[in-house]
């Protein structure tokens, strides 16, 4: 859609849209049924290098197409028995000789190490932390080194590791290295294998890592696990996985129950009302941004206390290439669109990002696609519940409506649409004030909730604009540009803009 005729058609639609005018409502709300906005604002202007054709980067010996599978357009290939069917073994742009792609868990840091007496030495600190699930919702949980989940430990197969654990919790803890075949005294399985690490006490764990794979560490006190104590422990193989990937993302899925009037998670509850990915709820989950044609791996680990998650990727068919135990032999890889990831299980999703756009990546349980009852509302307010603490701080939290003035409450069962996640302007700005979301549709935060994040597949020029330049990018501009190049621009309507949001 890059020829001048198409561009003219697109711009014409934009002009009609502008004539339709614009009115908005300042507050964004979960769900979009009652926004009451006109659907025809200005289409964002063209950006980037619209005539650019997808191409192989200089220095890469990757090819554009093998056995009928194209890395640049949706395609399946010619033969289900081919190694390249649905991109199964099509390598990324990055050659294996450059080593593994760096592991990246959005919104989480890596735990630094230094070489001491032939071992990679890490300092891990179990502690109480505050984690902002969404702008304005700071929750009290347990984590490590100031973060929940804890920072990522990243090593290479064959390393010797020494992890110095200093307990800053006010109670005993244990740390288990999940999936490691190590000497039993270091297994961290509570008093079965060691004495507790007392508050203020330090314990040293040291072992050789002969495995490679997607592992994690966590407290072996059940309620501490339910309270957030987990982190990645990624072991890259000595010999880079074949085919090599360009991106290696990691996402930890968790659930919590936090009473509407509280900030302290309740680890005793078998229920949940908050969902997090790497400690953030949608839409504060940071999108996974990659370039058109790259090979991408997403490692997903479910650390929910009680909930399994069927995980769905839009716009692509991926291969399941491994789980928490090990990389799966390629003869047993399975192509899928949705994978059930059980508690304390991990799944590695690999695919060629051959379909540009903003693709949602999410748990498919409908009740996991949003947070729940995070605010006291309507008939669910219990008699005698004290909301004083909540009301003291309404500048950072949505106000509590403890009246029953809404005539809808005369209908038994009302409301069924989840209300109560209205966001203030500063909270919306916090969501938009991240590089990774530049140029997404103006209303995207209303669609990405709970256990949801976004895979952004961007043509090279748009990737540079979003991730590497400081040029301003209008909301919706990147999305509209992808529609211009790869979709049907004459049928596209840009998102309604919201007043006061400069978008
Ligand atoms: Cu789920």
From TrEMBL:
InterPro entries in the record: Cu-oxidase-like_N (IPR011707), Cu-oxidase_C (IPR011706), Cu-oxidase_fam (IPR045087), Cupredoxin (IPR008972), TAT_signal (IPR006311)
Signal peptide start-end: none
Matching Gene3D superfamilies: Cupredoxins - blue copper proteins
GO molecular function annotations of the record: copper ion binding; oxidoreductase activity
SUPFAM superfamilies: Cupredoxins
Superkingdom in the source lineage: Bacteria
PROSITE patterns the UniProt entry points to: TAT (PS51318)
Domain (Plastocyanin-like): residue spans on this chain: 134-239, 270-377
Region Disordered: start-end pairs: 29-62
Protein name per the record: Copper oxidase
Species the sequence originates in: Rhodopirellula bahusiensis
Lineage: Bacteria, Pseudomonadati, Planctomycetota, Planctomycetia, Pirellulales
């Amino acid at each position: 859609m890059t020829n001048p005729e198409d561009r003219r058609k697109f711009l014409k639609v934009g002009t009609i849209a502008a004539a339709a005018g614009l009115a908005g409502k300042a507050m964004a709300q979960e769900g979009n049924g009652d926004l009451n906005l006109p659907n025809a604002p200005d289409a964002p202007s063209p950006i980037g290098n619209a005539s650019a054709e997808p191409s192989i980067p200089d220095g890469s010996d990757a090819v554009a197409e093998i056995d009928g599978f194209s890395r640049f357009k949706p395609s399946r290939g010619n033969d289900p028995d081919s190694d390249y069917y649905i991109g199964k073994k099509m390598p990324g742009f990055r050659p294996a000789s450059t080593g593994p792609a760096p592991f990246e868990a959005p919104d989480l840091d890596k735990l630094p190490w230094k070489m001491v007496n032939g071992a990679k030495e890490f300092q891990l600190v179990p502690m109480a932390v505050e984690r902002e699930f969404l702008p304005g919702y700071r929750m009290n949980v347990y984590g490590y080194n100031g973060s929940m989940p804890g920072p990522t430990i990243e090593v290479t197969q064959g390393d010797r590791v020494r992890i110095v654990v200093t307990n800053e919790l006010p109670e005993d803890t244990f740390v288990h290295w999940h999936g490691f075949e190590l000497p039993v005294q270091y297994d961290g399985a509570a008093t079965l294998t060691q004495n507790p690490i007392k508050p203020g006490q330090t314990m040293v764990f040291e072992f050789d890592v002969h495995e490679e794979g997607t592992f994690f560490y966590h407290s072996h006190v059940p309620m501490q696990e339910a309270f957030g104590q987990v982190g990645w422990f990624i072991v890259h193989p000595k010999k880079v996985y074949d085919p090599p990937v360009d991106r290696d993302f990691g996402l930890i899925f968790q659930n919590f129950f936090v009473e509407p009037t509280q900030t302290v998670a309740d680890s005793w509850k078998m229920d949940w009302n908050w969902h997090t990915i790497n400690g953030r709820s949608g839409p504060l989950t940071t999108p996974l941004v990659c370039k058109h044609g790259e090979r991408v791996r997403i490692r997903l680990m479910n650390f929910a206390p009680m909930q399994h998650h069927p995980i769905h990727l839009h716009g692509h068919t991926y291969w399941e290439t491994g789980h928490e135990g090990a990389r799966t032999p390629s003869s047993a890889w399975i192509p899928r669109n949705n994978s059930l990831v059980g508690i304390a299980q991990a799944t590695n999703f690999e695919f060629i990002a051959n379909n540009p756009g903003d693709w949602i990546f999410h748990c498919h349980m409908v009740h996991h696609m949003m947070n729940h009852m995070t605010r006291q509302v309507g008939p669910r307010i219990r008699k005698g519940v004290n909301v004083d603490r909540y009301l003291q701080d309404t500048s950072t939290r949505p106000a509590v409506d403890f009246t029953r003035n809404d005539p809808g409450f005369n209908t038994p069962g009302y409301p069924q649409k989840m209300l109560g996640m209205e966001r203030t302007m500063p909270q919306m700005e916090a969501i938009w004030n991240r590089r990774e979301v530049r140029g997404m549709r103006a209303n995207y935060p209303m669609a990405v909730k709970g256990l949801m994040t976004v895979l952004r597949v961007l043509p090279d020029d748009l990737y540079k604009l979003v991730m590497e330049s400081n040029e301003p990018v209008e909301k919706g501009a990147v999305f509209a540009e992808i529609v211009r190049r790869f979709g049907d621009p004459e049928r596209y309507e840009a998102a309604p803009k919201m007043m006061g949001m400069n978008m």
